[in-house]
Amino acid sequence: MGKCVLLCLLVACTFLGSRAQTPALVRDTIWGEFPSVVRVKTPRENQFCLGTVLNSNHVLTSAFCVLSYERTRVFPARLVRVIAGDISVAPVANTRQTRTALHIFVHEDYRPHTFENNLAVIRLSEHLHLPSNGIEAAELRMRIVPENHPCDVVTWYRAPFAEVDPSQGIPRQQAFTVNIRNRDACAAERRTELTIEESALCTYTTNTVSVVQGDPMFCDGELTSIQSFVFLPPDQQQQNQPNLVSTQVRFYFHWINMQLTRTQPMPDGWNPVEF
C-alpha cells in the first residue's frame, strides 16, 4: 500500500513539475546565432513572417505566411520578399541580402482549418550569395526529439503601436527556450475532435510570448520544426501556459526536397479551402 502511495505521489509531482516550468525568457539574438533564419515580407499589412534558408535559392516557411487573409489564394510571387543576413530592421547590416520570390510552393494537402501540412517553400528569383558571414543554410533534424528536450524558438519582435521606449520598439529577431512536451498529454488538453498529429511537436510557453506561424524551432542547432498553431488549455487556471504546436520537418523531408527541383508552378486558382 505504501509503495502505491509513493508511486502516485511521484507521478503527481512529475506532472505538476512539468506544468510549472520556468516561464520562457525572450532574448534578443546575437550575430551568428541563427544565420539560416530570414524574414518573409508579404502584402499582409504589418506582418513579418520568418523563414529558414534551405539552400541559396530556397526558403522554408509556413503555408499561412504566403496565403491571403481569407486563405483562398497564394500571394503573387513578385509581391513576396525575403530579407536574409540581418537580425534587425534598423540599422541595415552590411550582410543583408534582399530577394524577390520567383515561385511559391504550398503543400498540396495544406488544411487551413486543421493546420495540417502547414508548409511552403519559396524559390528566390536570384540566388543568395553564399558563403556569407550573415547567412547559412539550415541543417534539418532527422532524429527524434526526446521528451523534455530543450529547444530554441526563433521569433520576431513586433512593437506595439503605443510603444513608449523607441529603443525597445525596433523590430528585431528574438528567441526563447522551450522543452518538448509529451504529445498525448498535449492532445488531451485540447479536448476537441482535432488531434495533435504524430508529425507535430508540442511545447509550453507563456502568454507574453508572441509567435507567428512559420517561426522556426531549433534543437541542438538543427532545424526541427516550424510553428503551426497555438491553443490554450480549457482549464482557466492554466491560461498563462498556452501550447505551441509545430510541424516537424523530418516528416516532410521528401516533400521539401521535391520542391527544390520542381519545374511546375502551383496550379492556377489553387484554393486549399475547397479541399
From TrEMBL:
Leader sequence residues: 1-20
Highest rank taxon of the organism: Eukaryota
Residues covered by the Peptidase S1 domain: 15-261
Family matches, as InterPro entries: CLIP_Serine_Protease (IPR051333), Peptidase_S1_PA (IPR009003), Peptidase_S1_PA_chymotrypsin (IPR043504), Trypsin_dom (IPR001254)
Keyword tags: Signal
Gene Ontology molecular function terms on file: serine-type endopeptidase activity
UniProt xrefs under Pfam families: Trypsin
UniProt protein name: Peptidase S1 domain-containing protein
